[in-house]
């Protein structure tokens, strides 16, 4: 089964999916939390329960025509085949499956943290849990390098894959004395520096947001000098792991603490920006009503939401305007539809305007502000 992690492009693409001919999308989230679903029987039971819920929801959709219902039946069969198959349990704490024949969509995503198992059948993919999980998550690269070998891994907090290696012919240290030894040793060190430059060039060809370095201490300064400025600015920390022999799982295990620490720093920085913006600068808003207004005006640079926040609201089916209450859209006069949880719509609007989304898990700053806020572009 082909799976992938969560990235911003995937989120934006899924949030824009709308099936043809008023079709629907099945969105299924299955928790694989090791504390609850450590054994295959437990995972199989959870999958069956989720699938039963999916079929109940499908039977309750009396608004679908014959063609739409047949397409939904086929989509549910694909979801069943996936969830009853060989799930990517290694390193993943959940999976999300999206299926829609009407949108030519079938995608399986690995989730870096546990989610509530649930399924929706709606006119668009249910992406709010993905945004909550992504919420500041980044694509990572891990570079392991010594004097003659280098290995590059990329991925996320659930999965790393070795994508490149650099091997250079660097001669060993010479033991002869005198000027000949000094000359040869300078040549060896020149070869090491060239190896580091070759490694840096290979790394620069890769796409990633944050970088961890693993290398002998004596190479630290030389390696950083070899990196170009944009790459150097993405260094988030270091890992201690066998450069030549560690497999991808061992590298991920060593990298996770640094990844978590970086996420915490970024979450704290985003909250600080919000608190400063809500002040005299007016570059931030807090509370549901003001945040939805900023989303409607496409002014949001960063959306911050408390983990688990749910709030009722209204949505204009014609233009997408969002609010906390009302019967008529102030933008185009259309009738508004009630939304049991307007956070899903807010997330989609934020993704559509390329806003960064943070789901706040580690700090309590948002609670007195209504659980939601936004840093503004202008």
Summarize the main sheet: 5 strands, mixed
Which architecture name of the largest domain does CATH use? Answer: 2-Layer Sandwich
Overall strand count: 16
Number of helices, counting only DSSP H or I runs of 4 residues or more: 10
- Placed side by side, the strands forming the largest sheet appear as 7-6-5-8-9
Instruction: Give the helix proportion (percent range).
Output: 25-40%
List keywords for this structure.
single chain, 378 residues, alpha+beta, Translation, Eukaryotic Peptide Chain Release Factor Subunit 1, Chain A, Nucleotidyltransferase, domain 5, 60s Ribosomal Protein L30, Chain: A, 3 domains, five-stranded mixed β-sheet, 10 helices, 22% strand
Written description of the protein model:
This protein has 378 residues and is of the alpha+beta class. Helices cover 38% and strands 22% of the residues. The chain has helices at 8-15, 40-60, 66-83, 128-134, 178-204, 220-226, 229-232, 248-281, 288-296, 343-352; strands at residues 25-31, 94-100, 105-111, 118-122, 140-145, 149-155, 160-167, 210-214, 235-238, 284-286, 300-306, 313-315, 322-323, 337-339, 356-360, 372-376. Strands 7-6-5-8-9 form a five-stranded mixed beta sheet. Strands 3-2-1-4 form a four-stranded antiparallel beta sheet, with helices on one face. The radius of gyration is 25 Å and the shape is globular. The mean pLDDT is 89.
